[in-house]
Design a protein that fits this description.
The complex is a heterodimer. Chain A is built from 9 helices and 5 strands. By secondary structure, chain A is an alpha/beta fold. A 5-stranded parallel β-sheet of chain A has the order 2-3-1-4-5, with helices on both faces. Chain A starts with 11 loop residues before the first strand and ends with a helix. Chain B is built from 8 helices and 5 strands, in the order βαβααβααβααβα. Chain B has a 5-stranded parallel β-sheet, with helices on both faces. In chain B, helix 3 runs antiparallel to helix 4. The radius of gyration of chain B is 17 Å and the shape is globular. The termini of chain B are far apart. The chains are: A alpha/beta, B alpha/beta. The interface between A and B is medium-sized, with 32 and 37 residues.
């Protein structure tokens, strides 16, 4: 079994991280567009999306069956399935893989729930080290405004209600995000995040991200992909709103 | 890989002094007679006045159904399978085993982390990674290893469940047929378990003997455990 930092593949792995409302998903979708237009194969893999684990996670969330440890382990299971099926094979084929959230999300969230950071880093040791990890840094107030302003109901675990921070779901969400934000800040130097100021206009952020990516595309394989990529709902929603 | 330690890492707010019960683990490969011995042990302990909870370390409420479904698809990768089982294990540990130990029960488990570690290690998973993950488990008060060899195992499996896809390690492509794969896989598994049992000072019982004889051997270890530290209140 290869562990973090030991994997060697012809492809490239770019990941985005940041708290909810940092705008990272929008940036990643724009990046995928650009990479595809530039003739690369760029595949997307989203956090907590393995079809194999989905039903289990959904049922456990509905019934609020998770402890911090099982929450952590089931998300690691989901991630492992995607590593084994969606991340490693395309990288071996020379493709670019784009991950919306990666192991650092687990480090931040699970640590906020009280899991031991050393135990967590071991748990995710099977992960492929990204070519670059972008961290979209945004003040808590702005992110919270983006999330609470535009959307309906917050969910139990999303708001960190299991931590018992507050009875009020919005208040709990804010305090949970605050802890996660602190966890992210601690990881910037540990994992060499490329920090993007996520308060800047979207196109400016995208230009910085593209420049960083460009530096890492030397000898990257181009591919003929016949299907045109569609804008993700997040990006579509953004364009529809302006 | 040496003796597993430390145990009990990472479970939140757990005070080991609260666990007044005893944890007894029965390990051994498929078809070795674990469930038969568990019923006998349970009866014996109860007739000695102890409250017993027996549990298999898979099929938890959280992941039981999902894991079963995932195994039917044959697309479960080794790391995913390991972590799915680990989730399953911890759900049992936190919601069944620990509460029972707090209530002063003798908890008798059909398999424990050692089988999970052996199965994953045979599939090429990193042993340090595995030990790190399972460092959250409790250290058993007694681990009994029902030791057998392939020759003894084959007829027993044939007359019970037959050769099953995963228990034959078919995902590892070890042989041309189910039988060949079963033999190679179980051989590797038994090797691993033998090593783990030796390193972690298990009570080793020869499982090739008859049911009563095996149980007599197990009883020696049970008596020793109960004499060592009488169960409080």
């Amino acid at each position: 079994m290869k562990t973090y930092g030991e994997h060697r593949y012809p492809g490239r792995l770019f990941v985005v991280e940041g708290i909810d409302g940092s705008g990272k998903s929008t940036q990643l979708s724009l990046l995928q567009q650009w990479l595809m237009q530039s003739g690369y194969s760029a595949l997307m893999s989203n956090w907590n999306s393995s079809p194999l684990v989905k039903a289990t996670t959904k049922a456990a969330k509905e019934k609020q069956m998770f402890t911090p440890t099982t929450f952590s382990l089931l998300h690691a299971t989901d991630f492992a399935d995607r590593v084994e099926r969606e991340i490693i094979p395309p990288l071996q084929a020379g493709s670019i893989v784009l991950c919306d959230r990666y192991i650092y999300t687990a480090f931040a969230r699970d640590a906020a729930r009280g899991c031991d950071p050393v135990w967590l880093r071991n748990l995710y040791k099977f992960a492929v080290k990204p070519t670059v990890a972008f961290y979209f840094k945004v003040p808590l107030e702005i992110a919270v405004q983006r999330i609470l302003g535009g959307r309906g109901q917050l969910k139990f675990y999303e708001a960190g209600m299991d931590l018992g921070l507050s009875q009020d779901i919005r208040e709990s969400f804010i305090r949970f995000q605050e802890i996660i934000l602190k966890e992210y800040e601690k990881m910037i130097s540990e994992f060499d995040f490329v920090v993007i100021d996520a308060t800047q206009p979207i196109h400016k952020q995208q230009a910085i991200v593209r420049a960083e990516i460009q530096k890492r595309l030397e000898h990257a394989k181009k591919a003929k992909v016949r299907r045109w990529v569609n804008l993700s709902p997040t990006v579509k929603g953004f364009f529809d709103s302006i | 890989m040496g003796e597993l330690k430390p145990y009990s890492q990472g479970i939140l707010r757990l005070d080991l002094n609260e666990l007044t019960g005893k944890l007894i683990v029965l390990e051994g490969t498929d078809g070795v007679g674990r469930s038969t011995q568990i019923s006998l042990i349970r009866l014996w302990l109860e007739s000695n006045g102890m409250a017993v909870l027996d549990t298999a370390m898979t099929d938890s409420q959280l992941t039981g159904a999902g894991l079963k479904e995932a195994k039917e698809g044959h697309t479960l990768g080794p790391a995913t399978m390991t972590l799915f089982y680990a989730t399953d294990f911890v759900d049992r540990l936190e919601n069944v085993v620990i509460p029972a130990l707090k209530a002063g029960f003798v908890v008798l488990t059909d398999r424990y982390i050692y089988s999970l570690i052996a199965r994953a290690a045979v599939r090429g998973m990193d042993t340090e990674w595995l030990e790190g993950i399972f460092s959250i488990a409790l250290k058993p008060d007694l681990s009994i290893y029902l030791k057998t060899d392939l020759e003894t195992l084959i007829p027993r499996v044939l007359h019970s469940t037959g050769f099953d896809y995963w228990e034959s390690g078919m995902d590892l492509h070890l042989g041309d047929s189910l039988f060949d794969s079963f033999c190679e896989y179980q051989k590797r598994l038994i090797d691993r378990l033998d090593t783990i049992a030796a390193q972690n000072k298990f009570a080793i019982v020869d499982a090739s003997k008859g049911i009563e004889e095996v149980f007599e051997d197990i009883k020696v270890h049970l008596k020793k455990l109960l004499e060592e530290k009488p169960t409080s209140s």
